[in-house]
Amino acid sequence: MPEAAFHERTEPATPRRRRQAREEGKVARSQEVNSAFILLASLGVLALAGPFMLRRMMGLTRAILGATGQVDLRADLLMGYFSQGLPEVLLTLVPLAGTVLAVGLLVNFAQVGLVFSWKPLAPRLDALSPTRGVGRIFSKRGAVELLKSLIKIALIGGIAYVTLREEIPRINALLGADPLPLYGYAATVVLKLGLRVALVMIGLAIADYAFQRWDFERSIMMSHREVEEELRHTEGDPRVRARVRAVQREISRRRMMENVKTADIVVTNPTRVAVALRYERQSMDAPKVVAKGERLLAQRIKDLARKHGVPVVEDRPLARMLLRVEIDAEIPVTLYRAVAELLAYVFRLRQQRYSVAHPA
Predict the structure, then answer these.
(1) Residues 315 and 181 placed together within one structural domain of the fold
(2) What 3-state DSSP class applies to 289?
(3) What would the pLDDT profile of 288-327 be if each residue is shown by its tens digit?
């Protein structure tokens, strides 16, 4: 692989890299999603609680204007007037402020989950560099943000123009009329305009969230060298791991070949598969596979079995089915009958040989 390609970021981020980015506060989050849903929720609150908020603000305004001639404008008394009116204003704004706060938290949580990180707030000297600041302004991300802002301004301006142009005849008709109906009409127009803007912003938010996800994934991609360095850091050198696995396989193979010497029978197919079985009536519920192999390994198993006097029996279907059984595992119930017949045959041969070698 060329050295330049080896350093090029073409690999997806590993779980460790994603975890580090999250700890640093780097997540895929779209501010447009927050703005769209906060605006939509605010419109809902104004539609439901707007009359209540309007009545309280009108009552507070009447009280202030009605007491204008009786107010003593001394500094200590002005503080008292302010402290009396502030709770009334806050109580009026509680539904709206509470909704904005709750929706903002929920939308953030839906986008990135629970993230606690102080690193984005830590002071950085490179952030004070004018060169870096100019570079960020004229970067690809800066261009995207500028384009996004221009699109938002154009769309919102167009929606406002179309909406208000539709209402011009009625606005002219209400000029000079009683203020109360004018308030209600203005609220209706504002909600209508806000709803249209919110729907457009939701569309922009979906597109922006998709872009932020793509840009985040691109920003945390890794090069081949970084992936190898991480693997070496977390799991050790790949070459050492490969060597350890090779040694483990060799040890396992030697142990398996030792088991062939004590097997009761080797079932073959006859050239490609060999499976060694052992059965001890006192300690086993069923025969176990103690060794198995294909091609060259199968030939080694057969040679070792013949060398140590283990019977080698040809049974093609049974050998194939036994090959699926793991080493040191008991054979499945479906093979009991076939294996029992072979073992019975082997045990009879042993008995005959013993009788010949030790006549009564």
Answers:
(1) no
(2) strand
(3) 888 888 888 889 989 888 888 888 888 888 889 988 888 8
Quickly state the pLDDT bin for 229 (edges 50, 70, 90): confident
Q: Is residue 122 part of a domain?
A: no
> Domain tally for the chain?
2
Residue 316, Ramachandran bin (φ over 0: left; ψ between -120 and 50: alpha; else beta): alpha
Question: What percentage of residues in the chain have a pLDDT greater than 90?
Answer: 1
pLDDT value of position 165: 87
CB 317 within 8 A of CB 273: no
Q: What is the DSSP secondary structure assignment for residue 308, as one 8-state letter?
A: T
Nearest CA-CA partner of 316 in 267, 259, 359: 267
Q: Which residues contact residue 160 at a Cβ distance below 8 angstroms, ignoring those fewer than 6 apart? A: 193, 197
In this structure, are 226 and 263 located in the same domain?
Answer: no
Per residue in 45-81, pLDDT (tens digit) is: 888 887 777 777 777 777 665 555 555 555 555 565 5
Closest C-alpha among 188, 158, 156 to residue 171: 188
CATH number, domain of 310, equals 3.40.1690.10
> Based on the domain organization, do 189 and 64 belong to the same domain?
yes
Q: Is residue 4 part of a domain?
A: no
Q: In whole numbers, what is the pLDDT of the chain averaged over residues? A: 78
Q: In this predicted model, what pLDDT tens digit does every residue of 274-290 receive, in sequence order? A: 999 988 888 888 888 88
Q: 78 in a domain, yes or no?
A: yes
Of 297, 291, 259, the C-alpha closest to 276 is 291
* Contacts of the segment 328-332: beta carbons below 8 A, 24+ positions apart: 328/288, 328/289, 328/290, 329/288, 329/289, 330/284, 330/285, 330/286, 330/287, 330/288, 331/277, 331/286, 331/287, 331/288, 331/289
CA 85/CA 61 separation, integer angstroms: 10
- Domain encompassing residue 136: 12-116+128-230
